[in-house]
Amino acid sequence: MDRSAFFGKTIFAVGMFAMLPLALRAQEPAIGEAGLARPAANVSALRVDSESLLRVEFPGRKTWGRVEKGAVLEGRLSLPLYAGEHVVAPEGSTIRVTVESTEKIRESLGFWRKTGHALVRAFNPLETSRPAEHRVELSAADLLLSTGEMVALDARVLRATSTVIVQPKAKSSQETGAALKKSAPRGTLLLALQQQAVPPVRTDEYAAPVIAAEEQRMARAYLLTAMRASLNHKGDTFRAQLAEPARVAGRMFTPGSVVEGTVVRSVAPRMLSRAGRLYLRVDRIVPVEGESLGVSGSLSAAEADAQAKFALDEEGTLHGRKPGIKNGLVDLGYSYFLGKISDDISETPIRALGASMSDAAVANAARYVGLGTSLAFLVTRHGRDVYLPKYALIEIELGRVSETASKEKHD
Fold it and tell me: Mean pLDDT over all residues of the chain?
């Protein structure tokens, strides 16, 4: 073989071996990109619609009034996050929020209405104003998925308060032995997604349909209409939004379906410390698409402010609780104070009107005035009101299906 040809082939082979690592290194980004494009085993993507609601509980927090800007809080989902009838994030999933600002929501009242409310509360210890709620702005919200990934959410806060769940007495006596089923107060945030989210989820664990073929007796929903016994009347309507999928009469209703109902009974707080009452009846479920279904249902649980003073009986009627010994003693103290003041003030005009009356007669007349004032105060005391705020979580016990209403179509 020619020596020059041998040296040429040798140089070519050495050059090829030298360029091989560079070629392999150039192919690594392409392989990496192809790997990112391929979904992992048992992982899929479900689309969570905008305006989907997430209820987050913060067990250690009782108020939102003292949260510093930039504070990072960690809570748990009290209800799963759904994409249709599929679970994207199960109940108990961790969600981390960064607070931008907090502000107490104040009632927009004029001077005279504020003054009137202050006087009413001053002379009526049972009178309560609207439960304290705060306007919370978030700069970030992240959800930890079952895959171990932290997904950033574009969400806004609809409601921030400290709440309890009220259930009928019978259930509480069986489960906890307490006189009234009332959960411990917990700070809650109700978030609404502002944009669609497509988080990756494990299809083998959580992405399967969560509703069995059998009928459901219970459904949970978010109240879209604030209800109050002192303001609402018989025949008023209310609306709610399903918080989880429900199968009724063989049909599947996904979260976001509207629940419509009517006020059957409403009794405003009355004199002699008689509390208000409110009974709500569910009439139909309106899906996002398709015909509405007429149902008959009542409340089996309701979310209330942590300081709410009402109960729920087995029939689904909300009623204000009795004043109790403490408030009774306060009322007696107020009545004695007002009677004493009226007694002292009335002596002078009585003496002027009855110039011929003796001191004993004037004192007796003034004493009767004071006694009448005390009795009038006690008689005119109103009982407690019943108040369900907007976006409160309610549990509905579903009854029979109404065939007539089922034929109505969703407009």
Answer: 75
